[in-house]
Amino acid sequence: MNAAQIGEVISLATGRDEAPFVIDEIEPGRLVVRLPFQQRMLRPGGTLSGPALFTAADLAMWVAVMAHYGPVVAAVTANLSINFLSRGEPGDILAEVRLLKKGRRLAVMDIGLFSAADPKTRIAHVTGSYAIPPEAPSA
Protein backbone atom coordinates (compact mmCIF):
# COMPACT_ATOMS: atom_id res chain seq x y z
CA MET A 1 0.00 0.00 0.00
CA ASN A 2 1.14 3.56 -0.58
CA ALA A 3 1.03 6.43 1.93
CA ALA A 4 -2.34 7.81 0.74
CA GLN A 5 -4.01 4.37 0.87
CA ILE A 6 -2.67 3.71 4.37
CA GLY A 7 -3.91 7.09 5.60
CA GLU A 8 -7.34 6.39 4.12
CA VAL A 9 -7.64 2.94 5.73
CA ILE A 10 -6.53 4.19 9.15
CA SER A 11 -8.88 7.19 8.96
CA LEU A 12 -11.78 4.84 8.24
CA ALA A 13 -10.71 2.41 10.99
CA THR A 14 -10.37 5.15 13.62
CA GLY A 15 -13.33 7.29 12.56
CA ARG A 16 -11.14 10.37 12.05
CA ASP A 17 -11.40 12.72 9.09
CA GLU A 18 -7.67 12.45 8.57
CA ALA A 19 -4.88 10.25 9.83
CA PRO A 20 -3.10 11.57 12.97
CA PHE A 21 0.32 11.14 11.34
CA VAL A 22 2.32 11.78 8.17
CA ILE A 23 4.32 9.17 6.28
CA ASP A 24 7.57 10.93 5.32
CA GLU A 25 9.24 7.97 3.60
CA ILE A 26 8.08 4.54 2.51
CA GLU A 27 10.04 1.78 0.80
CA PRO A 28 10.21 -2.01 1.05
CA GLY A 29 11.22 -2.98 4.59
CA ARG A 30 11.45 0.61 5.87
CA LEU A 31 9.36 3.70 6.51
CA VAL A 32 9.42 6.95 8.46
CA VAL A 33 6.28 8.17 10.23
CA ARG A 34 5.92 11.68 11.68
CA LEU A 35 3.60 12.29 14.63
CA PRO A 36 2.89 16.05 14.63
CA PHE A 37 3.79 17.87 17.82
CA GLN A 38 1.09 18.77 20.33
CA GLN A 39 1.68 20.56 23.62
CA ARG A 40 0.18 17.61 25.52
CA MET A 41 3.12 15.44 24.39
CA LEU A 42 5.40 17.21 26.86
CA ARG A 43 6.20 16.08 30.36
CA PRO A 44 7.10 18.45 33.20
CA GLY A 45 10.47 19.92 32.29
CA GLY A 46 9.48 20.44 28.66
CA THR A 47 10.69 17.19 27.08
CA LEU A 48 8.76 14.67 25.02
CA SER A 49 6.97 12.25 27.33
CA GLY A 50 7.34 8.48 27.43
CA PRO A 51 3.65 7.91 26.60
CA ALA A 52 3.99 10.14 23.51
CA LEU A 53 7.05 8.19 22.35
CA PHE A 54 5.29 4.87 23.00
CA THR A 55 2.29 6.08 20.98
CA ALA A 56 4.53 7.12 18.08
CA ALA A 57 6.30 3.74 18.05
CA ASP A 58 3.09 1.71 18.23
CA LEU A 59 1.39 3.80 15.55
CA ALA A 60 4.45 3.54 13.29
CA MET A 61 4.46 -0.25 13.66
CA TRP A 62 0.76 -0.37 12.70
CA VAL A 63 1.51 1.77 9.63
CA ALA A 64 4.41 -0.56 8.72
CA VAL A 65 2.09 -3.57 8.93
CA MET A 66 -0.36 -1.84 6.55
CA ALA A 67 2.47 -0.94 4.17
CA HIS A 68 3.76 -4.51 4.00
CA TYR A 69 0.65 -6.69 4.47
CA GLY A 70 -2.16 -4.53 3.08
CA PRO A 71 -5.26 -3.23 4.93
CA VAL A 72 -4.94 -5.41 8.05
CA VAL A 73 -6.66 -3.12 10.58
CA ALA A 74 -7.18 -6.03 12.99
CA ALA A 75 -3.41 -6.51 13.47
CA VAL A 76 -2.47 -5.86 17.11
CA THR A 77 0.64 -5.17 19.16
CA ALA A 78 2.13 -8.43 20.45
CA ASN A 79 5.22 -6.92 22.08
CA LEU A 80 6.83 -3.51 22.48
CA SER A 81 10.00 -2.71 24.40
CA ILE A 82 11.35 0.82 24.60
CA ASN A 83 14.74 2.10 25.78
CA PHE A 84 14.95 5.84 26.39
CA LEU A 85 18.34 7.16 25.28
CA SER A 86 18.23 10.96 25.55
CA ARG A 87 15.92 13.90 26.21
CA GLY A 88 13.44 14.53 23.44
CA GLU A 89 13.26 18.23 22.65
CA PRO A 90 9.77 19.56 21.78
CA GLY A 91 8.91 18.87 18.14
CA ASP A 92 7.30 16.34 15.83
CA ILE A 93 8.22 12.76 16.71
CA LEU A 94 9.90 10.86 13.87
CA ALA A 95 9.71 7.07 13.95
CA GLU A 96 12.00 5.18 11.57
CA VAL A 97 10.72 1.61 11.27
CA ARG A 98 12.66 -1.31 9.85
CA LEU A 99 10.79 -4.54 9.23
CA LEU A 100 13.07 -7.33 10.47
CA LYS A 101 10.72 -10.27 9.82
CA LYS A 102 7.53 -10.49 7.80
CA GLY A 103 5.99 -13.77 8.89
CA ARG A 104 2.54 -15.23 8.28
CA ARG A 105 1.41 -14.51 11.85
CA LEU A 106 4.02 -12.10 13.25
CA ALA A 107 5.81 -8.97 12.01
CA VAL A 108 8.97 -8.06 13.95
CA MET A 109 10.26 -4.49 13.80
CA ASP A 110 13.04 -2.20 15.00
CA ILE A 111 12.18 1.47 15.51
CA GLY A 112 14.36 4.51 16.08
CA LEU A 113 12.61 7.54 17.59
CA PHE A 114 13.85 11.09 16.97
CA SER A 115 12.59 14.62 17.61
CA ALA A 116 12.28 16.80 14.51
CA ALA A 117 13.94 19.50 16.65
CA ASP A 118 17.14 17.37 16.57
CA PRO A 119 16.68 14.65 13.93
CA LYS A 120 20.25 13.32 14.22
CA THR A 121 19.94 12.33 17.90
CA ARG A 122 18.05 9.12 18.61
CA ILE A 123 15.91 9.64 21.70
CA ALA A 124 14.64 6.07 22.02
CA HIS A 125 15.21 2.61 20.61
CA VAL A 126 12.18 0.35 20.29
CA THR A 127 11.74 -3.28 19.34
CA GLY A 128 8.30 -4.66 18.79
CA SER A 129 6.09 -7.10 17.02
CA TYR A 130 2.56 -7.17 15.66
CA ALA A 131 0.29 -10.21 15.55
CA ILE A 132 -1.18 -10.65 12.08
CA PRO A 133 -4.73 -12.07 11.95
CA PRO A 134 -5.34 -15.28 9.99
CA GLU A 135 -7.29 -13.51 7.22
CA ALA A 136 -4.28 -11.31 6.34
CA PRO A 137 -2.57 -11.77 2.96
CA SER A 138 0.21 -14.36 3.13
CA ALA A 139 3.83 -13.23 3.49
Mean pLDDT: 91
CATH architecture: Roll
By DSSP, the count of extended strands is 8
Query: What does the largest sheet look like?
Result: 6 strands, antiparallel
Strand content: 35-45%
Distance between the termini: 14 Å
Helix content: 10-25%
Low-confidence stretches: none
* Quaternary class: single chain
* Class from secondary-structure proportions: alpha+beta
CATH topology tier name: Thiol Ester Dehydrase, Chain A
Helix-strand pattern: HEEEEHEEEE
Corresponding CATH superfamily: Hotdog Thioesterase
Shape estimate? globular
Question: Strand order, biggest sheet?
Answer: 1-2-6-7-8-5
Number of helices: 2
Element layout with pairings:
Blueprint: H1 3-14, E1 22-27, E2 30-35, E3 42-43, E4 47-48, H2 50-69, E5 76-84, E6 93-102, E7 106-115, E8 118-131
Structural description of this entry:
There is one protein chain. The protein has 139 residues and is of the alpha+beta class. It has a single domain, classed as Roll (Thiol Ester Dehydrase, Chain A), CATH 3.10.129. Helix content is 23%, strand content 42%. The protein has helices at residues 3-14, 50-69, and strands spanning 22-27, 30-35, 42-43, 47-48, 76-84, 93-102, 106-115, 118-131. Strands 1-2-6-7-8-5 form a six-stranded antiparallel beta sheet, with helices on one face. It is globular and about 45 Å long. The mean pLDDT is 91. Pfam families: 4HBT (PF03061). Residues 45-116 form the Thioesterase domain. GO terms for molecular function: 1,4-dihydroxy-2-naphthoyl-CoA thioesterase activity.
